[in-house]
Amino acid sequence: MEEGRIHNSEGESEGGQLWRAALLVEYQGTEYAGFQLQVGQPTIQGELEKALAKFTGQPIRIRAASRTDSGTHAKGQVVDFLTSTQHPLEKFVLALNYHLPEDINVVEAHRVDDEFNSRRCALSRTYRYSILNRPAPSPLRRHSHYWIRENLDIETMAEAAQLLVGVHDFRALAAGHPQDRSAVREVMQWEIEKFEDNIVIECEATGFLKQQIRKASGILTDIGRGRFPVNKVTQALAGDVSGTPLLPPHGLCLISVKYPSSIKIGLGNAGSE
């Protein structure tokens, strides 16, 4: 089903005038085969569209700021869609959460300009990879943190991470990126911090390629273990990714999506025009 399926030729549906809504969504991706629809598998998009159909009585196709992978989480995912529902915005959050499973939650609902596109209007996306760094694993963090028992050299990891900042071709760190599409992305920051036994790898960029963050984080953690020198990052960007690990998806979370200041999403307003 295309997003415009409920349109008629004059931009209306059987229910009335179409308008565009945007939602701020958070979810634990453990039980899902990623965000994007996949036949025969549970996905975040599938659950959101089912909840929207129950609430509005309309078939709705959503689009997202970032298509997170299987097992990956989100605190600040943004989706948008067209609808002709007459339900007020302030009812969206409670009503949709009533129809959604407990591991998916709508945090905010907004009416946005018809031209708004959650993916194309985004200035940047921020992801966080979380590592539990201590001798014993934690049952409380097993779905949100990747456990590493060895002590990691955070300062060396942070030094190496700065080699990822700037404009680079990240094709070597991506999985299955089409040869006819650019793999150049601008990274604004790639920071590493440690809080007690929690290591946070946080990166912001105009966009990310499939598995790019998990591959880069694997290189950084092996640098922290002393398995690679700092310049392994430069070698990897040049195409030498031999022996570099891909970290599992459960440590990765989409933290936020940045938009121009005129777009008021993610500011704590549950429902707004």
Helix tally equals 5
What fraction of residues sit in β-strands?
25-35%
CATH topology of the largest domain: Alpha-Beta Plaits
Quick one: how many beta strands?
13
Overall average pLDDT: 91
Please state the structural category: alpha+beta
Secondary-structure element series: EEEHEEHEEEHEEEHHEE
For the report, how would you describe the main beta sheet?
Answer: 11 strands, mixed
Number of discrete domains:
2
Low-confidence stretches: 1-13
Which term fits the overall shape? Answer: globular
Describe this structure in words.
The protein is α+β, with helices and mostly antiparallel strands. The protein has 2 domains: 119 residues, Alpha-Beta Plaits (2-Layer Sandwich); 132 residues, Pseudouridine synthase I, catalytic domain, C-terminal subdomain (Alpha-Beta Plaits), CATH 3.30.70.660. The strands form 2 sheets. Strands 3, 4, 5, 6, 7, 8, 9, 10, 11, 12 and 13 form an 11-stranded mixed beta sheet that branches. It has a two-stranded antiparallel ribbon with strand order 1-2. A hairpin with an 8-residue loop joins strand 4 and strand 5. Helix 1 packs across helix 2. The chain is globular. The N terminus is likely disordered.
